[in-house]
Structures are given as structure tokens and as C-alpha cells.
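Review form for a predicted model. The reviewer records the input and the model, then writes brief findings.
Reviewer: anonymous (R2)
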Amino acid sequence: MMQKVIFVLNRYKFFLITLIILILVLIFKNHTGIKALTIANDSLFQMLSVLPPIMVLLGLIDEWISRASMMKYMGEDSGILGVALVMLFAAFAAGPMYAAFPFTAVLIKKGVKFSNVIIFMNAWCVIKISTLLFEITSLGYEFTFCRLIIDFVGVIAMGYLVDYFMKKEDKEALYNENI
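Model under review:
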């Protein structure tokens, strides 16, 4: 019983510390605490509105696309095709960055090359079709085109750099954990 309590406390220590701090702020600075609770509540409802459709989509991807197909098109031997596919997926993706993490877990589970996983995560942040359309109308196509070219190069370089510097044992453990 005591081990379970210690496990729960250790697993949720960041949440518990934050909760204690929030309670203290509510006691000593009521206005600030209420504002913090309001912001946390808004963030929670935003996340709850985004995550269910993403989880459904992930379930469909997990069932409909085989591991062999993912490895063929985005795995170790995928080359430029794998890079292009993960960038295309990220460009059409919708939602905030935290929505990319469940997709990343599925990519790892399906055996996608590690550099392609990193490229996907970086591209999710900076290369989105919806953002590009807004950017073209607001900042002009010259700026948008230059930023996009820099982002393509940077995202690909970052993917291969992280892959190069990450220890082989850590990558193997990551992939073995998700099989």
C-alpha cells in the first residue's frame, strides 16, 4: 500500500506541487489565484476540445496503416520520400503543438525513422498550410516564401542533427518500449 502511495506521489509530483502553490496563491493573493484558475480552466477546455478528434484519428491510423507500410515509406530506408511525407503530414495537421505528441508516439510505434519523427515535430510547429495562407495575406508572399525555405532547411537539418547526436541505445530503448 505504501509503495502505491509513493508511486502516485512520485508520478504526479509536478501536478501536486503546482496544486499546492495554487492553493497558497489563492489564500494569500485571492485575485491572482482566481485569475490563474480561470486560465487553467480555459486551457483545460481547449485541450479537451482538441484531443478527442486527434485520438480518434490516431486510432484509425493505428488500425488502418500497417507497421510495414509506415516503415517502407517513412522508415530507415525511406530517404527523401520519408522526409517529404512527414513534412506533408505536418503541413496539413491542425491543432497546437501538444497535439503532435500523440502522433509522434504512433510514428515511433510504427517504426518511422527517428530523424523523420523529429522532422515531423519541427514541421508541425513551423510549416502549416493555414499559417502560410494567413502569413501571405499579412506579410506578403516574398517574406513567406523566404521564411518557408529557411524553415524547410532548418527542420530537415534539425531532424538529422538530433538523430546524429542521440545515443543509439536511447533510440533503441525508445523504439523497443513502443513495440
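Findings: The mean pLDDT is 87.
Further findings: The longest helix spans residues 30-64.
Recommendation: see findings above.
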